[in-house]
Every structure is written in structure tokens, then in C-alpha cells.
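User: Please fill in residues for this 203-position structure.
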């Protein structure tokens, strides 16, 4: 089945399981909050919505949005970006001027990333479908790429490395990042008001 989502800046949360033909109001279960971003796993088993405009929690649903549970283990924050792996095991969540967090166990535990030189406004995140590598972008114009989570790593999920500056590092935000990783693990990103799509191979 195809899964979709919609969340306004401040209000109700809606979900769709027919690629947007029809929508269900989930505010009775999810509440009316400052929804800032929503993500869905590739297999549709996990939805996560962020109460980012209210500096609240992440909320998860395993039943197409019928019920929602706060992910208290991630803490609260001004959430700006979300990405979920195909089967929902890996979650990336970025804050506005705050932390970048990664979970390798479906949100049970979280690893706070420390990326020297980052601007800290995590505009977008994606997880490669094939390699499961993690890609994030900040408002300064940098893309960051990391290896996939692994159970044998000493600190799973904490190995993000700066891959390629797309703008001038450390400058004020110039627009939002939008990131998608295609099935061949090529990064497609758009930055700024022009919305120009630019391809970049994973290093």
C-alpha cells in the first residue's frame, strides 16, 4: 500500500493510505500541536510526526496514524527534519539550531551527533534505501554523509562525516534543504528558493 501524510504548521494531523486521494483527520488521537515535519518508513510500518513548532516530542504510530505515542527517549526540541529507514529501525531527527539525533533501534535509544563546523540548523535528512547510509543537510549549505547503523559499532549511528560543502560553511541560512536518495544511492538535493534539483553521488 502507498502511504502519505500531511501536517499543518500549527493544528491537526492528517494521514492518507491511498497516495493522497483521501485523508483521515488524526487529531483525536494525535492532538492539535505544532506539527513541523512527518516521516514514514518505506514499508509503511512506522509513521513519526514532530511537534517542532511547540518544541515538543516526536510521536510514533504503527497503525497508519490511528494511535500515536510520544517518543520520550528522544527528548523535546524544535524539530526540523526527519527520516526513517525502509523497515523503521533507523530514525534520524534534526532540530532547528539544536541537536541531530539518530536511533538504530526504532526510537528506543538515541545517539546525539557532534559534527564540528556544522551550522546546526538541520533542514533535511534522508536514509539511502539500498546502502542505508545517512545523509543530512544544514542551512549553511553543507551535506553530511554517514555510514549505516550497525550492531557491532562501538557507538552505532555516531559516525557521521562531513561529505561535501554545497555552499559557504558557517554562513547564515539561505533556504531550506530537501534531500532524497534514489535506489542507486545517488543524492538528489534542492537548496534555496529556486528549488533546483542537483544530483550528487554518495562518496
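Assistant: Residues filled in for all 203 positions:
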Amino acid at each position: 500500500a502507498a502511504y502519505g501524510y500531511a501536517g499543518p504548521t500549527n493544528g491537526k494531523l492528517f494521514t492518507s493510505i491511498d497516495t493522497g486521494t483521501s485523508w483521515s483527520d488524526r487529531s483525536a488521537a494525535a492532538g492539535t500541536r505544532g506539527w513541523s515535519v512527518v516521516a514514514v518508513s518505506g514499508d509503511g510500518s512506522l509513521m513519526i510526526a514532530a511537534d517542532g513548532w511547540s518544541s515538543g516530542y516526536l510521536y510514533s504510530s504503527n497503525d497508519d496514524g490511528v494511535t500515536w505515542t510520544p517518543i520520550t527517549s528522544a527528548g523535546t526540541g524544535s524539530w526540523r527534519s526527519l527520516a526513517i529507514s525502509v523497515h523503521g529501525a533507523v530514525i534520524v531527527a534534526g532540530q532547528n539550531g539544536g541537536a541531530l539525533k539518530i536511533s538504530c533501534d526504532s526510537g528506543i535509544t538515541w545517539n546525539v551527533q557532534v559534527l564540528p563546523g556544522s551550522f546546526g540548523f538541520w533542514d533535511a535528512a534522508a536514509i539511502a534505501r539500498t546502502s542505508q547510509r545517512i545523509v543530512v543537510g544544514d542551512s549553511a549549505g553543507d551535506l553530511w554523509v554517514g555510514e549505516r547503523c550497525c550492531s557491532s559499532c562501538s557507538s552505532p549511528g555516531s559516525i557521521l562525516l562531513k561529505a561535501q560543502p554545497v555552499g559557504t560553511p558557517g554562513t547564515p541560512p539561505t533556504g531550506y534543504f530537501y534531500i532524497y536518495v534514489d535506489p542507486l544511492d545517488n543524492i538528489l538535493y534542492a537548496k534555496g528558493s529556486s528549488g533546483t534539483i542537483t544530483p550528487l553521488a554518495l562518496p
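For context: The mean pLDDT is 77.
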